[in-house]
Write a structure and sequence with these properties.
Layout lengths: L1 H15 L17 H16 L5 H8 L5 H22 L19 H17 L6 H6 L5 H18 L6
Keywords: Membrane, Transmembrane, Transmembrane helix
Length: about 170
């Protein structure tokens, strides 16, 4: 019984520290990760073709002038919800047979503040972390400033993490 409580407490601590709860213990050779590079390139192409990386599309979204981005984001949320439902309902495992654990989360004020800051940065720069590399890849090299700012913001968060609301 005590061991179960210790395991649960360890999982909660890992979630707070942004450690991967489902971290695989398998070790692979470096070239095993090429598949992620390929998927990332394909994902970037989809971003470009669907105009998700377009500064104008992002501005339309924040000005409530177009449904385009809301449709894309909404379909991603629905796909994610259905995927999580299937993972939980059918106890789906990874391709290597490892269990997938989805921990319950609680909403707190730090997430509200973080979401507001994220949205403000997204509206000002016309970029969110996902499409940054695709934007740079299309020749919008000025986005490198946004990328460096995102890295800097992550670094500052790491320094101030203990003093921020969680």
């Amino acid at each position: 019984m005590q061991q179960n409580r210790d395991i649960e407490k360890d999982l909660q601590n890992r979630e707070l520290d942004a450690m991967c709860v489902n971290e695989s213990l398998l070790k692979h050779k470096w070239y095993h990760n090429i598949k992620y590079l390929i998927v990332g390139i394909l994902f970037g192409i989809i971003f470009v073709k669907s105009e998700v990386i377009s500064w104008f599309r992002i501005q339309e979204m924040f000005r409530l002038q177009s449904f385009h981005m809301y449709g894309i984001i909404g379909s991603a949320v629905i796909t994610g919800m259905i995927s999580v439902l299937f993972i939980k309902k059918f106890n789906i495992k990874t391709i290597y047979g490892e269990p997938i654990k989805i921990a319950s989360k609680t909403l707190n004020k730090g997430q509200i503040y973080g979401g507001l800051i994220f949205g403000l940065g997204w509206a000002i720069t016309g970029a969110c972390p996902g499409p940054l590399f695709a934007q740079i890849g299309t020749g919008a090299t000025v986005i490198a400033v946004t990328l460096l700012s995102a890295i800097g913001g992550t670094w500052v968060y790491g320094l101030l993490r203990e003093k921020l609301p969680h």
